[in-house]
């Protein structure tokens, strides 16, 4: 009886460790984010680079939105915002070669504006598969055309 009691306790401890590891695998606070950088324009060009993003459901991403141009740009997609869970968005700045966080936002995001020479980090988890074809920058230039009219559009595919 004593031996079987020990075996039962040992089995319970082992089962607890295994199920704890399974729970930790789904713990977003313990996942290392997959970094994906999107460049919002470049001097003289209105474009997203890359023009198409491919993400997977259930994985934590740090979407780095970097504006290397001389104009502010939007990263706007209503469809994409409905397909992801946002952990946070951080506004960052380079200081002495290091990225410094200036502000952090939580909750649903639909549009992020990034000023020239700056970056934002959107920490998110895709929760629905699909295709968002409405990625665009709707900032208007002096000629009345939006950056989207000039080619700053894109697509996000979630598998």
Q: How would you portray this structure in words?
A:
The protein is an alpha+beta fold and 159 residues long. The protein contains two helices and eleven strands. The chain has helices at residues 2-25, 78-82; strands at 34-42, 45-49, 52-55, 61-66, 73-76, 84-95, 98-105, 111-114, 119-126, 130-136, 153-158. The strands form three sheets. The chain has a six-stranded mixed sheet with strand order 2-1-4-9-6-7. The protein is globular and about 50 Å long. The N and C termini lie far apart (53 Å). Residues 17-21 have low confidence and may be disordered.
Basic shape:
globular
Mean pLDDT: 87
Tally of contiguous helical segments: 2
Helix content: 10-25%
In the sheet with the most strands, the strands line up as 2-1-4-9-6-7
Order of helices and strands: HEEEEEHEEEEEE
The total strand number stands at 11
Q: Roughly what fraction of the amino acids lie in strands?
A: over 45%
Unreliable stretches: 17-21
For the CA atoms, what is the radius of gyration?
A: 21 Å
Strand count, sense and barrel status of the largest sheet are: 6 strands, mixed
